[in-house]
Amino acid sequence: MQNTRRSMRGKERGMVVYYRWSISLAALDQLLTLIVRYTIRPYYKCSIISALYITNIQNPGGGMSIFLMHSMVLILAPIVLTVVTLYMHTQYRGSKAMTCALSMVVGGTLSNLADRILFGGVIDYAYLSVLHVYFNLADVLIVSGALAWTTLFFRERKTLHTRH
After folding, report:
1. Which residues form the catalytic set?
2. pLDDT by residue (tens digit) across 42-79?
3. Distance (Å, rounded) from C-alpha 119 to C-alpha 58?
4. Kindly report the CA angle at 112 between 109 and 113, in degrees rounded to 5?
5. pTM value?
6. CA–CA gap between residue 136 and residue 113 (Å, rounded)
7. Cβ distance 110 to 78 under 8 Å?
8. Residues whose CB is less than 8 angstroms from the CB of residue 57 and which lie 6 or more positions away in sequence, other chains included
9. Nearest CA-CA partner of 75 in 118, 36, 26
10. Torsion angle, CA of 123/137/113/109, rounded to 10 degrees?
């Protein structure tokens, strides 16, 4: 009975960490968006380093402005992604790296979802001129979290296959 309580506490603690990370990352992106929204005029670009600029671009579409005229897809897809990611977290609770990767995906997704619901689109406040790409922290979190999760997933599968 005691071991069961301890393991449940550990699992609950893992979920708390997961939620805290997700919410903290979403809050950080929201803070940056708020600062940009109220301090940088639309379409203005300010160079940080040679190829990286701070800007204020309202993006009603998805990444790279896809699904521009399909706002319902851009609201429903993040909700589905968040639910799927929450389920995936229940499957990989023991892995801190998985928790971190999935928290990044959920944090970025929730932040972009909040912007879409409240403002009809997201603010892309970074511009990388060498790739001609506008993005925000939420986009970076989603992509890097998904890449990290994929890498960890396949590494774990490879480890399982080599054990048998």
Report:
1. 124, 139
2. 999 999 999 999 999 998 876 545 555 555 666 677 67
3. 9
4. 80
5. 0.79
6. 13
7. yes
8. 42, 43, 123, 124, 125, 127, 134
9. 118
10. 160
